[in-house]
Amino acid sequence: MTDARLPVAVLGATGAVGQTFIRLLAGHPWFRLAEVAASERSAGKTYADATRWIEGTMPSEAAALVVTTCDPERVRSPLVFSALDATAAADLEPRFARAGRFVLSNAKHFRMEPDVPLVIPEVNASHLALLDAQAARGWTGGVITNANCAATVVAMALAPLHAAFGVRELFVATMQAVSGAGYPGVPSLDILGNVIPYIGDEEPKLEREMQKMLGTLRGSAVEPAPFVVSAHANRVPVEHGHTAACSVRFATKPTPAAARAALEAWTGDPVVRGLPSAPARPLLVSDAADRPQPRRDVMAGNGMTVTVGRVREDNLFDLRFVASGHNTIRGAAGGSILNAEVLAASGRLPWRPPAGA
Amino acid sequence: MTDARLPVAVLGATGAVGQTFIRLLAGHPWFRLAEVAASERSAGKTYADATRWIEGTMPSEAAALVVTTCDPERVRSPLVFSALDATAAADLEPRFARAGRFVLSNAKHFRMEPDVPLVIPEVNASHLALLDAQAARGWTGGVITNANCAATVVAMALAPLHAAFGVRELFVATMQAVSGAGYPGVPSLDILGNVIPYIGDEEPKLEREMQKMLGTLRGSAVEPAPFVVSAHANRVPVEHGHTAACSVRFATKPTPAAARAALEAWTGDPVVRGLPSAPARPLLVSDAADRPQPRRDVMAGNGMTVTVGRVREDNLFDLRFVASGHNTIRGAAGGSILNAEVLAASGRLPWRPPAGA
Amino acid sequence: MTDARLPVAVLGATGAVGQTFIRLLAGHPWFRLAEVAASERSAGKTYADATRWIEGTMPSEAAALVVTTCDPERVRSPLVFSALDATAAADLEPRFARAGRFVLSNAKHFRMEPDVPLVIPEVNASHLALLDAQAARGWTGGVITNANCAATVVAMALAPLHAAFGVRELFVATMQAVSGAGYPGVPSLDILGNVIPYIGDEEPKLEREMQKMLGTLRGSAVEPAPFVVSAHANRVPVEHGHTAACSVRFATKPTPAAARAALEAWTGDPVVRGLPSAPARPLLVSDAADRPQPRRDVMAGNGMTVTVGRVREDNLFDLRFVASGHNTIRGAAGGSILNAEVLAASGRLPWRPPAGA
Amino acid sequence: MTDARLPVAVLGATGAVGQTFIRLLAGHPWFRLAEVAASERSAGKTYADATRWIEGTMPSEAAALVVTTCDPERVRSPLVFSALDATAAADLEPRFARAGRFVLSNAKHFRMEPDVPLVIPEVNASHLALLDAQAARGWTGGVITNANCAATVVAMALAPLHAAFGVRELFVATMQAVSGAGYPGVPSLDILGNVIPYIGDEEPKLEREMQKMLGTLRGSAVEPAPFVVSAHANRVPVEHGHTAACSVRFATKPTPAAARAALEAWTGDPVVRGLPSAPARPLLVSDAADRPQPRRDVMAGNGMTVTVGRVREDNLFDLRFVASGHNTIRGAAGGSILNAEVLAASGRLPWRPPAGA
Fold first, then answer.
1. Domain ranges in chain D?
2. CA-based nearest residue in chain A for residue B289
3. Which chain A residues are closer than 8 Å to D176 by Cβ?
4. 3-class DSSP state for residue A187?
5. Domain C6-147+333-345 is in which class?
6. Catalytic residue annotation of D
C-alpha cells in the first residue's frame, strides 16, 4: 500500500524548532516527513546521530533519515518547513522558492516584505493571496512566514477585538519561556530563579508584526492595522508558553463583557475549520481569577489554542487582559504546519487532501 | 557594660517578614531586639522552638527569647516593628499606639488613612509630620506604615522623575518574587516553571499607594500626586526581588538621557544620609542591556537599593524603564527599620542615637 | 443507550492525588466516575466549586458531580478509589470494605498488613489472592494497596533483576518531585533553587515496601524478598517524576549486559497485558548517557512506564542504574486504576469487562 | 602609600570560576589582583569589555585591567590562580611553574600526579611538601591543585571521620548545582524542573580524588587512603551548592553520636587558623531534620564552610549523612585562595604576610 501523503522536508531540522516540526509531523495525516536538512556539520549522519534530541523520545520515522544540506538540489520535497535562523533563511529560503517549493518560514527575514504573507490562518488566511505577487521575484514556489512567537499569541487575542472595536494603542509586557531562545539558548545560570527583562530584537517584532497580521488586504498589498504598540519583553524560568499582559485602547471602548463575548464567539477564518492541526477553538477564555498560566494552559488545543483571562477594565486605556500560548507550537512549528494545511486545502499545493478529510 | 541601644519588639515575629526583621535587627547598632511576639499558639515557647526558620541560620540573640502574645501589657519596648497581617494589625497596632509605642507597620490597614504616614524615607520622610495628627486618635505613640513591596520599588524609581518631570500616567507590569506571599505562601506546584498572572489585592495597592507617597504634605494632610496607574501584577518563580516594567507619561517629556541623569543624581531626603540601614545610594542605574535582574541585583545596597535599567523612549507614553528591588528588605522589614532610624534621628523617639553615629 | 461501565467513586477527590484519579478516569472505557467524596467541608458543593483544580482543565464529567462525605451509606459505587491520607484511611477504608466495596488505597496504613495485597500488577498481581483472607476481618469487599510512589518506581526496575539474579542489598538515593507531597504541599520558598534532603517518613517506606512486593506468596501470606535497603530520600524542584539512583548487590552478580537484557525483556505478569491502563511496556531502557530525566521521560507510556538508564557496574556492589517514573500516575492514581482493571479482568469484581476488550 | 600586598594573576579570568576568583580577591588583605589573562579572543580588551559578568557587580579593581594572554612572559605575578580547563592547563600551567610561579590550579590535569599536592588545607596541608619534588620537573615554582568541587565537599565531611574511624567504603549520590558546569554551561531547557542523572567525567573524580586527599604523606609520596567509592552524580536546578548523600562503612563502626562529636570537634590543620579566607569552622553540623540545604546553607562561612546533617545509622553500612557546600567558593576559587594563603603563611612564597595578620 502506498503512502498518499505529501512528502515534506524540514530545514534546520536538528535545532529546537526543527525538532518541534519533527514531533508534530510524526503521524501527520497529510504530510509525510521525507527529508531532514541541516548544516554541513550534520549532513551525511542519520538524524538520530546528528541531533541532541531535547524532548521526550525521537519519532521513529525521523531517526533513520539521513541529514542532507539545505540545498534545493538535494531536498526534493515540494513542501518545505524552515526552522532556519534569519541569516540562513535570507539566503536559502529564496533558493527553494525559486526552485518551485513552498517554504513555511519561521525566520524574521521576509516577514515584513510587502509580497510575503505573514499568517496566522484563523486571523488572516486571506493574506496568502500575496503569494501570487511573488512570481515577480521569479519564484515559482513561494515563502509564507509566521510571526514572532510572542506576537502570534497576542495577535490571536487581539483579532476578534480588533474586528469588533478597532485596536488603537497597546501596551504589552511579555513573560516568555526559555524555549523561545532555542537550544542551547538561555544558560541556566542566567534564568534559574531569575527574570531577564530583555530579549534581543524581540520588542521591535512585537511592535510591528501584529499590525501587518491584523491589516487589510487591498489588491496585492496589506494595509497595516492603524495601531501603535509599546512592548516590554521579559524572559522567565518557564519551559514552554509565552504569557502577555495587555492594556488596549480601542476606537470604540467595549465593556469587559462585550470584549469577553467577542473573544468567546471567535472561531477564526472558516477555511481553517477541520484542518488536521486546527484546534477545536483558537481561543479559550478563562473565568478563573488566576489564569491563564503557561504551565497549566500551554497544551490547550494540543498547543494550538491561546488562553485569555483576566478580561477587565483598564484605568488608563479601555481594557486589560492576559493571553498565553505555546511558543514553539502555535508560535512556530505548529503555526507553520497549519499554514501549510491551509495552502493544501485551498488548492495552492500540487497535492490535494483526501476527500472527506 | 550596659547596652545603650533602644529595646525593640517584633510583632508577628515567627512569619516570613517577622524573620526578616529578626535577621536585620541582629547586631543593629541602635536597636536591641528585646521582645518577640506572635499568636497564642507560639506564646510561651522560645523563639527557636516556635519558629520554622526559613533563611540561613537564626541569629543567636533571638533564639532564646520567649515569645509573648501581641499585647501592649506584655510587650514593653517603646519601638515596635509589626509584621502582622492586615486583620490582626487593624486591632492590635492601635492598642500599641494608644499605649505610647511607635509602631512600624507593614500591613495595609492604615496605609491610606489621612493621618498615617506612608513612608519611604528617601522619598517622603517629611510625611512623618502626620504623626502629630494621630494625637487626635488618643494615640500617645503612633503608627507609621510602609507601602506594598512592589509599590515601594516603583515609587523609588519614580521619585526623582516625578520631582523633575511630573508623572501623569503609569503602566506597570510586575514580576514578583514568591517571598512576597510569606511562608508557606505560594505552593511549589503553583509556581515551578510557571507564571501566575494574578496576586490577590495587589493591583489596587499598586494603583493608589504611590500617589500618596509621592504626594505633597500640606498642613496636616498629604495631597496625592496627580497620576493614574494601571497595574498588571504577576507572580514568577523567583525567591526574592520584585521587578517592574514601567511606561510613564509625564507633564514634561524628558529625554531618556535627562531621565537617566535625574535617576543617577538622586540621593533622596538628606535626613536619611548616614543612617545605619541607609544604602550608599537608594538607586543604581544600570547600563547593561539586560539588567536589572532580581537574582543578580536584589542584594544591591544590602537589599536597600533599587536598581533601574533599560531607560528608553516609549512608543506610546514618554519613557520606559525596568526597576527591581528586594521585596522583604527594602519593601518590608528593611524599610520599616530605616523609617525607625529616621524617627530616632529626628528626635521623635524617647531615645537619641549616639553622638557621631 | 445505557452506559455499561462500572460506576466508581473517588474518596479524597479534591486533593492532588484525587484530582489525578479524576483526570485518569475521564473517558475510561470500563469505569464511569459516578461519585466524588471528600471532607465535610466540601460536601454538598459541586466538585467544580469544592476543588482548587491544579492541572490543565477539569474534566466535564466531574465538574457537576456533588461532593458527598466519605461514608459507605452515601457512596454506593462497588469500586472505590481512595486518595485518603493514612489517618483517614485507617478509619474509613475498612468501613467501605465491610460494606462490600473494593477499595484501591494509596495510603500507607494497610500496606504492611499480612492480609492486604500491596500490588504493582506487572510485578505481583498474584498477591491479590490475599484478598480472600480479608473475609476473616468481616470484610465482604476488600482493600488493595499500592506502594509509596518512590518505592513503586524502584520496585518496577528491580522486579526483573530480582527474578533473574536475586536482590540482596540496595542503596537508593531518590530525587523526588514536589507533587509527591500533595497540594499545597511543599512551599515554593522551600524548594525553588534548592534541594531538601529529607522527606518525612519516606525512607522507612522505601526500606520495607519493596520486599513485600517482590516477595513470594506462600499460601495466604507473602514471604518478603530477603534484601536490605538503605534509602536517602531527597526533594528536588521537579513537578512530576521521581528519580532514583540505585546500587544493588545480587545473589548472582550479573554483567551490565545481562542486567540490561533482563530489564528489556520484562513485560510483567501476563494478566496485565492489554488492560486499558497498561502501557505497551512497563519498563523502557534508555541508551542515552544522561537519561532517564523526570521532565523528559515522566510521560512515557502515559505516565505508566518506568524508564531505566545508566545500567553499569558498581564499584562496591554489583550494579548501578537510575530509574525514573511518574509519581502520581504510576506511583499513585494510575497504579490504583491498573490494579482495579486486574481485579475486573480476573473476575474479582461484580462486573465483567466487555468481551474483546 | 604603597600597596604591600602580593601581586597575583588569574588565568582564565573571564569564565565562571575566573569571575569567582575576581570576586573573592577584591579587597583581599594579602593579595592584590594585578593581572587577568584569558584567551587570544579577549586579549587586549579591558576586563569589563571582555567579560560577560554573571554575578552581582564587577569589582572596580578588575574592570579596567587589560586582559593578556596566558603566557608567563606577559603575566609577571609570582602567584597565579588558574581557572583554566584541563586541556589548557596541561600546556600552560607547567610553563608558569617552570618560570618560577606558583600556580593554584582548579583543573583535573595534574591532580593525580604523584608529585602534585591535591589540597584542602584543613584536611591535608601537609601534602604541600610534595612541592619540593616538583624541582625534578625543572619547575622553580610549582603547581598546587584543588579537587573536584563535589569531591571537596565530601572529603571535608569525611576527614574527621576517617581520622577517627577509618573510612573503608562509601556510597555517595550527589545533587550538584549548575554553576559547577561553568558558563554558559547547562542549558536552561535541560535543567528547569528536571534532574540530569549524569555529569560527564564527574563520577571518576569522585571515586579517586578523596583517597589522595585523605591519604598519608610518606616521604615524597602520598599513600592513598584505603577505601573504595561508588558515586552517582546528578545535576539539579540549583544555582550554587553541591549536596551529597553519603553512606559509609568504617574500619571501626562509630555510633551516630560519636560520629557527630568527631564532626563537631574538627577544626582542621592548625596552619589554617586565622588565615584571611579560613572560615571560623570548616564544618557545621546541623540538628534540623531537613538540613543541609544548598540554597540556605551554601553561604555558611562565606561559602567556605561545609554543612553536615542527618547523621544517622545506615541499614547496610555504618553511617549515613548529608553534606553540602559551595562548589565555586570552597570547591574551586575560594579553596585555591586558601591554599595560597597557606603557602604564604608557611613561607613557601617570595613574600611574607604582615606580622600580626
1. 6-147+333-345, 149-326
2. A198
3. none
4. strand
5. alpha beta
6. 149, 242
